[in-house]
Amino acid sequence: xxxxxxxxxxxLKNKGELFSTPQTSYLHLRRIEQFLQEKTxxxxxxxxxxxxxxxxLIRCKVRLNKEENKGHYLQLxxxxxxxxxxxxxxxxxxxTSYSAKVYMSSVISFIDSRDYVSYVTDMEMNQYKEDATGAxxxxxxxxxxxxxxxxxxxxxxxxxxxxxEHQIELL
Length: 171
Description:
The protein is of the alpha/beta class. It has three helices and seven strands, in the order βαββααββββ. The chain is elongated, with a radius of gyration of 19 Å.
C-alpha cells in the first residue's frame, strides 16, 4: 500500500533500433519518478522501472498467393510479424496496443490477413527470455508444452516482443 510502480515503454519508432528493448536510462527513470512524485500525494511513493522482455517466436508454414518473388514475400511476412509483435518499434503503426498477452489466434489472423498469403498451417508460438549469457530459456505452458496458445507473463513489468527472426517455411 502506498507504492505505485510505473513501467515506461520507450518509443523506438524511426530510430533504427527494432531489436533494442524499449528501455530508458537510469537517469530518465529517476526523472520520471521525480516528475510523478511532485504530482501525487505525499503518502504515495512512486517507482519507475524498465520492462523485462519476453520474446515471441513464431514457427509456421505458409502457402503464398504469388508464385514469383517468394523470397521477397517470405522476408516481408517476417518483417510484418516483427512489427505486429513489437509495437514500440513498428514504423507502420498497424499494431499500437500493448496488451499483456499475445494470442496464437491473433497471430494466425494477422498472417492470414496478408494479401499475399493463401493460408497458414502448422502454427507454433514459443516464448523465451534471454539469460545473462544470451542463451534462450523457453517458457512452458500449463500442459508442459513449448507451443503456447497465449503468452505467459509472470510479473506485471514483463512485456512480450517479437523474436528477431521467425521460422517460416513455404509450402
